[in-house]
Amino acid sequence: MTPRQLLDATQIAFLGRRLRALLDGARGNDLLSISLDLGGGDDDWLGVEDGAWPGVDLTRPACHWWAAPATSGGREYRLAIGRAIDFQSAGAARFSALQAAFAGLRAVWRHDDAQRSGRSPLAHLGFAFADESADGWPNAQLVVPAVLLQSAGGRRTATFSCVAAAGETALAGWLDGLRGNAWQPRRSPAPPLPETVGPLAGQAFMARVAAALQAIHGGQLDKLVLARSQRCTTDCAIDVATLLATLRDRHPGCTIYGVARGGEAFVGATPERLLALRQGTVQVDALAGSAWRAGGRGWAASPSLHDAKNRREQQFVVDAVRAALSPFCSTLAAPQAAEVLQSGALQHLRTTVHGCLQPGVAFFELLAALHPTPAVGGWPVATASRWLQSHGERRGAWYSGGIGWLDRAGDGDSVVALRCARINGRQAELFAGAGIVAGSDPAQELAETEVKLAVIADALRHARRRRPLAERAASA
Ligand SMILES: C=C(O[C@@H]1C=C(C(=O)O)C=C[C@H]1O)C(=O)O
């Protein structure tokens, strides 16, 4: 099935009838969602590879593509197009503002599932690392998409949402959204020209590591995560869909995400789950400590993943996550030993923290308690945040913040937005960071950020070699 064939005339007529039925008796600010069952089929229907769905167009004003490892194996895909509701917030109370908005939505959210798709409508969310940011991305955002396509376990659904005040015009908007994402002609991307990390960028990062180590040795802090960015420019527009497909193929254990707003896309492949909330149970990854294969690239050699520094670095995260969750949990599973998580050329230490929640605990309450974990901020959390702010730490878009989804019942997932870049036309800005504790070596920390930046840089390089099927066939 292609997007063009997504809905036939019978389904469009059916959608129109369901919309009219929902509108009957609705109040203007009610939120209405209608799900259609699109039948069984290949989950890669929503993949972004050449020829399958080249229409995932992240240069559109509002689009969110997501491919997460499914519990049953394979991938779970989501594509959100447009916005029925867009709520944004910033500042110290940003998560409680999102929670209040979400609770308000739930009270007026009506879902028609006449075809028994069994899938809940979803809202997607994203937020920046710090609670104030000024780089064109909303600091914290919750969106109910106008159109949501989902594919998992061989089942495909479409959910259409609008506020009742939009009336019957919503139908035309939904169909437009789908058309806009239909088969776009694609240009094959040209070779990106990554800016070499000049010695100055590397020296500047190592100087900041040295300053962080001084603060740690002075006893003010135990851990600080420092980030850096790298810009590169290509000689024609970066093909975001190919970049996403490359990340998806290369990082099977990661969640791949791409969010577009106003011509810019924020794209990444993260190994780290921040929060999964399902029917009163919670799961959080305490992920930190890194080792890598240098692969002859001239990066400093990796420390052992199990050395004292890496274990200490990860233990801060385990302790902080357990402390953050415990007031909300009736039971918190006993601490587990850390496992090794392989993610491309990197390895990390990971402990999954599980708990049973007390009744009524909301997703954003948990986010507010957890973020920033010492995996991305530092320890103690408040001192680390102040240190970063006063030392000019700059983190673009939603890097090291979170990105995720919530269903109508309030269950949901958020990942930590890592291994990512902000893409605008020919420009990419890549982000990565590393945790500093007593015993950290500045050259190794720099190398760690290089390996992390390479997740996107290598995918960008590879993406240029992939060409649309039509073009390949023409030149064959
Ligand atoms: C901050 C990043 O990664 C985090 C920091 C890690 C570390 O310091 O070892 C490991 C995994 C992530 O929790 C990043 O990838 O940018």
UniProtKB/TrEMBL annotation:
Keyword Zinc-finger appears in the UniProt entry: no
Keywords (A to Z) from UniProt: Isomerase
Reactions performed catalytically: chorismate = isochorismate
UniProt KW Transport keyword: no
A GO MF term: isochorismate synthase activity
Principal EC category: isomerase
Highest taxon listed in the record's lineage: Bacteria
Domain Chorismate-utilising enzyme C-terminal: 203-452
EC numbers for this chain: 5.4.4.2
Family according to the record: Belongs to the isochorismate synthase family.
This protein's name: isochorismate synthase
Native source organism of the sequence: Candidatus Accumulibacter adjunctus
